Amino acid sequence: MYHMSEYEFMQYKMAEQRLRDIRRQNAIELQKAYDDIHPTRTCYDYDLKRLYSESMNPEKYAIYLVEMRNGHERIEEWWTKRAEAYKEAQVLANGDESKIYEILLNIIETRPDLQRKQVDLSIYGDVAEYDSLVEKMNMEELLEDYWDKEGEFDE
Asked: Which of 7, 46, 66, 78 matches a 20 to 30 Å C-alpha distance to 85?
């Protein structure tokens, strides 16, 4: 049986508003990204009193825009599912606020994509074991596989 916390219930209740806010924020972020597109431009640094040219790689920026849009779509899809589930619960409850929680709980139980992911707690036992092993190591063993790019610690 699935258990929904009060916090999770409030997420479903506020999902539609949160979705509107996210869409507005994503539109602003995307518009700013499109406004920043430029192949090469000349800039002036007033502090240094220097003129310089600034350019960007169009391929990398196109990839950045696609990844940004995909991230936006993933987040919007997550909140859309929750908003739709809450609306469905409202319709089934016929406006009775006291029934919405139970109806929403039933909807979530039948749809695994709405359920929060369970964390496997067995890993915490392993962490304690590894932690004790690390505590027993000397500094040479700890840094055995360590390397740094600048070579500062090789001296």
From this structure: 66
Torsion of Cα atoms, 92 then 94 then 95 then 97, to 10°? -60
Dump the DSSP string for 49-108.
TEEEEEE--HHHHHHHHHHHHHHHHHHHHHHHHHHHHHHHHHHHHTT-HHHHHHHHHHHH
What tens digit of pLDDT does each residue of 39-93 get?
Answer: 788 888 899 989 988 888 888 899 999 999 999 999 999 999 999 999 999 999 9
Give the predicted TM-score (pTM) of the model.
0.67
Q: Where are the domains of the chain?
A: 6-121
Helices (H) and strands (E) counted in the chain, each on its own, are 6, 2
Q: How far apart are CA 134 and CA 128, in angstroms?
A: 10
